[in-house]
Amino acid sequence: MTPPAEGVERTEDSADFFDYADRGVLLLRRCDACGEVRGPQEAWCVSCRAEEHTVVEAGGGGSLVSWAVVHRAPLPWLETPYVAAVVEVDEGPWLLVRLATSGDPLEVGTRLHLEVDRVPGSEPLLVARTS
Ligand SMILES: [Zn+2]
User: Fold this and answer.
1) Model pLDDT, residue 121
2) I need a surface site. Which of 32, 105, 122, 131 has the fewest CB within 10 A?
C-alpha cells in the first residue's frame, strides 16, 4: 500500500490532474512498468521506481483508513474544525483528503465517495463523503 503523500501543486506535470478535477474527475497514475496505481502527486512508482505512467480515471470509491479532527488549518481559507482523512482509493493508492461526515460514527473501512470541491481562490480540493 502507498502511504499518504502531501498535497498536489499545479505544475506542468500535474496540470492534467487539475484540469480533470475541474470537471469532477480524479486522475491517478498507473505505472507503465509494473502496473501499480499511484496517487496523482507521485512522480515515480513506489514499487519499481519507474517514472513512466499512464493516466487513469478513478471510479470515485474508497475506504476510510484513518482520520483526525483539525482545529488549526494550514491554509487561511479552510474553515475549522474539519476532519482530515486517509482514504484508500479503490484503485489502490492512499490519499489525504478532507472528510465530510454525515454525523454517523466513523470506523476504519467505512465506504466513502470522493468528490471534487471548489473553494473560491483555490485549486480544486478532493473531499471524501460518507455514503
Ligand atoms: Zn512500477
Assistant:
1) 67
2) 105
- Report if residue 6 sits inside a domain: no
- Whether 5 is covered by a domain: the verdict is no
- How many Å from the N-terminal Cα to the C-terminal Cα in the chain? 23
| Gap from CA of 113 to ligand 1 centroid (Å) | 26
59 vs 131, higher pLDDT: 59
Residue 97: which domain range? 15-130
Domains: count for the chain: 1
Tens digits of per-residue pLDDT, 57-106? 999 999 999 999 999 988 777 789 989 999 999 999 999 999 998 888 89
Domain assignment of residue 31, yes or no? yes
| C-alpha 60 to ligand 1 mean position (Å) | 22
Instruction: Please give the distance, rounded to the nearest whole angstrom, from the Cα atom of residue 1 to the centre of ligand 1.
Output: 13
